[in-house]
Amino acid sequence: MKLCLIGNGFRYELENLCRLFFPFERIDVCDAAPGAEDGFAALAARRTGRDGVTLTAGFRRDGFAEEASERLPAGADDETCERRLAVLLFGLLCQATGARPPWGILTGVRPGKLMRRLSEEMGAEGARRYFREELLCRDEKIDLCLAAQAGEEAILSTSRSDHFSLYFSVPFCPTRCSYCSFVSHSVERSAKLIEPYVERLCEELRATGALADRLGLKLSTVYMGGGTPTTLSAGQLARVFAALAASFDLKSASEFTVEAGRPDTVTPERLDAIRKGGATRISINPQSLNDRVLEAIGRRHTAQQTLDAFALARKMGFDNVNMDLIAGLPEDDTDSFSHTLDGVLALDPESVTVHTLSLKRASRMTVGGDRPAAEAGRTVDRMLTEANRRLTGAGLFPYYLYRQSKTVGNMENTGYAKPGFEGRYNVFIMDETHSILACGAGAVTKLRAADGFIERVFNFKYPYEYLSRFDEILARKEAVAGFYGRHPLV
Fold first, then answer.
1. Domains in the chain: ranges and CATH
2. % the chain with pLDDT above 90
3. Triad 231, 234, 238: Cα angle to 5°
């Protein structure tokens, strides 16, 4: 489609708005009015005169051709003009498609941050009114955002400027899921890389620990992610945890999470290594408890294996277990998703994270053209509404919320937890509250100054790059010291 912007530079927001309705359309942006040959085009124009500003939006597709205009006073600022143009275009896109995304024109990934700022400026009711009337958000999404914001604030209040969290990755999986865009490799294709990767990861952990100690940083939370960390053998896990314990003061950390995400990798030996390594929280991620859905997304485990893995974790003493679900997967429907909720609630985990399927550009599902139908957004809406009702009814409450690009229906990801079992690392990284020091392939160190300034240090993405250019990764760590030299701890 063609997006024609006249008299404004609001490309980012208006292009993202069009993608809410047409996530797979190529969008060509121009600065001229659409011609007669442009059968599929959106228009957003701002014309300024002495007596005011005229905003005009238009949309044309398959026989639908409508425009909407609004007059604003002279001197209307860019923020107001951008928002009102988005509202006009949103209304036309809703008419043309029959869809009305429940988050309205809000396209940002952290709605809680905006809600927090508005609440400070105009109070909770003023913020609620702004979300409803200016951003066109549905009431239930506003309620969810406010509830998650309260949970986030309780966790954020514990962070200090000298705190940091540690993330380290194991970018290997038994198989690659069709929706995945992470830098992860199947074990079958990259088995020979795993052992040298473990060696280098231990070395990077030691270097990072020494650096954090030198700078006077205090460890707040630890997160071992991937990929699937439990593709490592029990012995390899033990070696990584030994390097971790030798390099960091784990006693100062309020949380240590390990993703034991794929149930087909959960064994007594690996769980024993994780428990002895000091983990306080693990994640066992079914995504779905429907075997047909699991097969469709390329997972080589069954729903029963998820149940067995969870039972084994309980038997071995794990009392803080998270489970991840994804709404909008291929072959799933509302009845199937409800069945998954039945199974998860029967297990009684301490937390559940409900994601919306995000069709990333690099995922096999997107590359292969296996895309959900347009009505999938309405189906996911019903799934998330039921998940919220049933999880809160079971005593798990929303404590963090974020959104990704290209989610089905422009929906959200929400973490639910029993009181006291919230995943603190999730909140810290999404809010950019304090620095995240990151190790491993594809890891991104995110440095935060006391004044909120953010700087990033990137590791090489792929395991073979990580191994062959490891000296460069260690050299890049010095950027952390340079950052704190320019932005001293308060």
1. 2-97 (3.30.160), 155-480 (3.80.30.20)
2. 78
3. 115
